[in-house]
Write a structure and sequence with these properties.
The protein is α+β, with helices and mostly antiparallel strands. It contains three helices and eight strands, in the order ββααβββββαβ. A hairpin with a 5-residue loop joins strand 1 and strand 2.
């Protein structure tokens, strides 16, 4: 049973099979070695994004992982030597989606397409089929997802 069903802009229905939320900055301090001068900035954000994408790849081997580029809010403040303050949305999400096979010649009982998506959002809110999901609805499923055999 799906956690949610979304209809993409292309008209394809995709089911959310798994959803994980983490704090964008919650555990980054320890990952950076705990420097007291830690602050959200472009190099720290780039590190966090790479870390989340690699974690998604490790936890879903064989499944393509797509990053929805996050909005970056620049405050214009300088807090240290790493550049201006730049803040990502507070919640990092990893969602695993399934849909019908990409190749229509494949048996629909034996095959499905799959994609893991990393994105950031302001609150821990699961996507809904009737909400405005913006970048999620615009996913290029045919170009990003991969077919997998689900039954042996």
């Amino acid at each position: 049973m799906a956690l949610a069903r979304l209809v993409l802009a292309s008209g394809r229905s995709v089911d959310l099979a798994e959803l994980r939320f983490t704090s964008t900055y919650g555990d980054l301090l320890s990952a950076c070695g705990g420097p007291p001068e830690f602050y959200p900035c472009e190099p720290v954000n780039d590190l966090r994004i790479r870390e989340l994408v690699h974690a998604a790849e490790r936890s879903h081997p064989g499944t393509p992982v797509h990053l929805v580029p996050p909005p970056r809010e620049r405050t214009g403040q300088y807090a240290g030597g790493l550049g201006p303050v730049e803040v990502l949305p507070a919640v990092a999400c990893l969602g695993t989606f399934h849909s019908a096979a990409l190749d229509p010649a494949r048996d629909p009982v034996l095959y499905r397409s799959r994609l893991a998506v990393v994105r950031f959002q302001p609150t821990p809110r699961p996507p809904s089929g009737c909400g405005r999901e913006g970048p999620l609805r615009e996913l290029d499923w045919m170009g990003l997802a991969r077919d997998e055999r689900v039954l042996a």
